[in-house]
From TrEMBL:
Protein name, as recorded: Trehalose-6-phosphate synthase
PANTHER family: BCDNA.GH08860, TREHALOSE-6-PHOSPHATE SYNTHASE
Annotated Gene3D superfamilies: Glycogen Phosphorylase B
Domain of life: Bacteria
Matches recorded under InterPro entries: Glyco_trans_20
Pfam families: Glyco_transf_20 (PF00982)
Organismal lineage: Bacteria, Pseudomonadati, Pseudomonadota, Alphaproteobacteria, Rhodobacterales
CDD domains: GT20_TPS
Amino acid sequence: MIVVSNRIPTGESVSGGLVVALHDTLGCAGGIWIGAHPEPGIGEETLDELGLTPYRRLAFRLTEEEQKNYYLGYANSVLWPLCHRRGDLVEMRPEYGAAYQAVNARVARMVGKIARHDDLIWVHDYHFLPLAKEMRALGLANRIGFFLHVPFPALGDLSVLSQPERFADDLAHYNLIGLQTRSDVARCLEMFRADPRAEFMPDGGIKFLDRITAVRSFPIGIDTAGFAEDAAQEAVNPFGRGDPGRFLIGVDRLDYSKGLPNRFRAFARYLENRPAGSRPCLVQIAPPTRQQVRAYQDITRELEEIAGHVNGTFAELDWTPIRYIHRSVPRVELARLYRKASVGLVTSFADGMNLVAKEYVAAQDPKNPGVLLLSRFAGAAEDMTDALQINPYDVEDVATAISTALDMPLEERQRRHASCLDVVGRTDVTIWSTAFLRALMTCIPSMTFPGFE
Ligand code: ADP
Ligand code: G6P
């Protein structure tokens, strides 16, 4: 198996759902993982072998221009906001699209050089939508699957692109298109239905010009048992001597899609009305991400202002309401933090799945579990119907839910947790990858590509 994604683990503690899930998958299955080297290059067509792991890691180098125009530009200033319903943040420049195509073509050539004819190729995320098309143009007839970790855009939102018709065409070069949720599948099918080049076949496949593709949902998950084990390790006290007592936890990359300002506002609203003597703390771990993009600089500044304001308003000499930490935390420590937290907060305005929701549930002590507050706009909400679902746009609703969660009787906490844990167990990362790869191996092969065997 050859896996391709832009992000690849390079040593430091990782944040981001894709890397966490693929690291767990390849750790079990083995294979080759190709991704971007953290250091820039000069546009060379060679892959560097990175250090030893249970799987092979091969890295291509982006030039500084490509990092700016393909990664920060087309991937994170066009496709990311588009998929997260933030058309207002899309920044379109001709050099972005050109670099995106060029990087995809170059990576296709590098994959083409190492792929054997029977390798399965599994491409991940919006950085590489046209990769299969580029590989097909080189004559690769392998089975190629694609998994989109972020929400599938609505048909209307695709019009934001300069050439919206390319989106469906690029995707149709994959044998299998994997999406997070049933709603994502519905949006993807809507796109194909609206496209005169696509035809629906009786078995559910889609014939697109001379190609056949399939679309299915594969909800991504975590290493549930491993995470629960880490969480239960009594030896680690993540707070050392600075234990905050009763606390709520949020763990997110510092991204505008995560609804962090409203989370802080809702916590402040809760503090205004809290019962006398109650002094809970919100521990927010938010490592900065994509900081060269303006929208990320803005959200970082906005959050600092809100946190400063909330702490200035409510703090006492021996109590800081919001503890706001900007760095990555080792996974064992993170697991322990989740377990100690009375409430886990997920307030995304749009989110492919949200692994944090699953990690929080897996880390709980089933005898005395905390409560997950889960945005109804996170993919995880589709199946985790017994989480306390909230509308992150409605600050009052979130504040009320915080109060409900902190006061929730043990029996109800246990019931909700058992139901959520059942979902987390059924959508484990191994089940996710096995289901995807099995579907890729059994779906209609690339014989539909004329000329290729
Ligand atoms: P996204 O993929 O948008 O970042 P997810 O919630 O799906 O969102 O995945 C985030 C992953 O990154 C989770 O596995 C989470 O534990 C991890 N993560 C986020 N922030 C940190 C952090 N500060 N330290 C360590 N891991 C983090
Ligand atoms: C999300 C995306 C991934 C991305 C991750 C971290 O999970 O789906 O593709 O790797 O965020 O973002 P970054 O830009 O730092 O790779």
